[in-house]
Amino acid sequence: MPAAAPRSGDAIFASVEHVNAELFTLTYGAIVRQLLTDLEEVDEVNKQLDQMGYNIGIRLIDEFLAKANVSRCVDFKETAETIAKVGFKMFLGVTASVTNWDADGTCCSIVLEDNPLVDFVELPDTCQGLYYCNVLSGVIRGALEMVSVHED
Amino acid sequence: MAAAAIYSLFIINKSGGLIYYKEYGSAGRMDTNDSLRVASLWHSMHAISQQLSPTVGCSGIELLEADAFDLHCFQSLTGTKFFVVCEPGTLHMDALLKVIYELYTDYVLKNPFYEMEMPIRCELFDLNLSQAVQKDRVALLGR
After folding, report:
1. Assuming Cys at both sites, which of A86, B45, B73, B107 could form a disulfide with B125, CB separation 3.0 to 4.6 Å?
2. pTM, rounded to two decimals
3. Domains defined for chain B, CATH in brackets
4. What are residue B65's DSSP bridge partners?
């Protein structure tokens, strides 16, 4: 039986219910502010954001697989491209680009031109070292771990 | 009349533990211990079939045809298995399994109080699952 063709990020994004973008941005901002108040240490907050992202990622991956109809990626390059083009598009409505590949092809950067999490956000000097979007790296880590890709 | 009956549905977590079992047939619900045993047996057989397969990259048994029933199995890339036991020759079970997978990602995984890999006790999942199975049954009988 022929497998269904993979769906594009745009198509899936269009088919799911959307939430108000500002509500999303404000909610995330409130979470980060509260974590800073509760934990005080920037490193602790980074860790918490990563953990929260991880818990989201381990659940999100099945939804991604169910809706996107992608088959197992052949190598890490394909994995990174799929995350950037389909994954981010499907869940955040924005496309990311993959750059900065190292010589082995084991390390890269995923760059978001237009990140809904950081709309209107300006980091004060007191928060140097805060990875404001660390939840995103946690999500990717959690999602990849569930399909047996271990990464830093 | 086209075969249209689903007898039972099982969902197994990645370690082979039964997390969901629903009986639709007239034989009555299997004893809990038996259902756990059947699930882990299937998990093992599925794993063995991947090793035995002469083709490279085999993802395990998808269909088992017996005299009295067919068994259709779907395994997600995360290792969760969904399998349904139905009347021989029942059509569109693969599509139904995909629908059940989507219901799982919505009503089970998005429930923050559901613990991963644990037995599923989500009312919304039960409700939507019944509706999906009913719709499928009606669609098959209608053809």
Report:
1. B107
2. 0.90
3. 6-141 (3.30.450.70)
4. B70
